[in-house]
Please model this.
Amino acid sequence: MKTKLFALLITAASFSATAADSYTIDPTHTFPSFEISHLGFSTQRGRFDRTSGKVTLDPKAANGGSIDVTIETASISTGLAKLEDHLRSKDFFDAAQYPQTKFVSTKLIFNKDKLAAVDGNLTLHGVTKPVHLTVDHFHCGLNPIAAKYQCGVNAYTVIKRSEFGVDKYVPAVGDEVKIVIQVEATKD
Model:
């Protein structure tokens, strides 16, 4: 057991995210979330429970790699079943017609070997628009429980939902939506 653990630690220590490496998003640790003003009284929060995708990291390349995230729109979770049903309806996400929300990067921006930002295209409600994600957390290393090499990222942006055709109750229910994407991905 000690020999296996030592070998894993040596392998992890010798790796750095400086060459192109491919990762698969871990759906059990990846939950994109959102925050929106509710009539100016409070901030409503929710998340999506089913996410998949791939990440390639290459800090030395011109565009730094790629990120492709697919969110199952119907997997919205707010803690309130009635609200979730309303958000899945044609008034908001129209999950029956638009079952997926996608983010596809166009450029990863590194500060040395640390991911600092991501530019890409967000497709929501059938509309694709460019967005800029600010990364406030980036860490790669050996997961001591799974004994696998993983990377984690926390990135955020603010969009206007009306620009994506989701404009029910604007401006009473906020037009600006903060999106936070927490990702864990395991090296392939």
Observations:
- The longest strand covers residues 127-143.
